[in-house]
Amino acid sequence: MYNGPIIDAHQHFWEPDINPHPWLAKEVLIPFRYGDYSAIKRRYLPSDYLADAGEHRVVASVYVDAEWDPRDPLGETRYIHGVAQSCGFPNAVVAQAWLHHADIADLLAAQAQWPLVRSVRHKPGGAATPQEAKSGTRSLMSDERWRQGFALLQKHRLHFDLQTPWWHLDEAARLARDFPTTQIILNHTGLPADRSPEGLAAWKAAMKHVAKYDNVAVKISGLGEKGIPWSVERNRRIVREALAIFGSQRAMFASNFPVDSLCVRLEDLWRGFKQIVADLAPQAQRALFYDNARRLYGIDTQPPEEA
Q: Gene3D superfamilies in the record, alphabetically (predicted)?
């Protein structure tokens, strides 16, 4: 199995007791795809992450916005740069940016000035079910004001991290077509929550549609299921089909920790990913665990054997 360096392409650090994460407040429980998430309402910093990673050689990580108070998106960017300066992690940042807000031009210019910011994320909402999407409910990806904000990303050489369920990937495909020079990174494997044969067939078709555009890559992550422990057996097919669709040069593994600690231990997650792709060529495995995240997020780090 792969034993080389890993860049975790999607994870979070936080200190809910001192920072403004409304959804992590002690008295708050929002509807959440993994159910009760009270267990993650605790401080989680690089030392915690590296302890959880155990034997796996995670040499760098990508911090993704963690629903910090949207009234102060730059506060989160400032905070995480402080963490990086003191701890050496994370090594790239996906910052918060609400693309349809009136101040988006100024905000993107400000976010782009921070040395670790490579991308932004704004979950575009939309339909809660495939049926709602079929009936015409659209996400913000079809909103003209939101798209005007998206158009500004190219100016600042920023990528866009997209978290949306597969039934909105037709909109994502139009976005990729209309803005071919902006890199889109699809989070959490397109959220294939419905594991029925019909659900997975629809997810696969949607993934194939958006993968037609070369400026779309995918993070293989966020595959937990409510009330069901993460396992190789339950996730092998999804991982391999995502790789068959996007190829080993447009996909990367990520943990979504500490969120996915609700479903799996970090050591077991990395071991599971390694088992699923153990038959691939060594260069393909390295691309998935290290090279692609390093390239797409512009991470300036050398693994031990290259130092």
A: Metal-dependent hydrolases
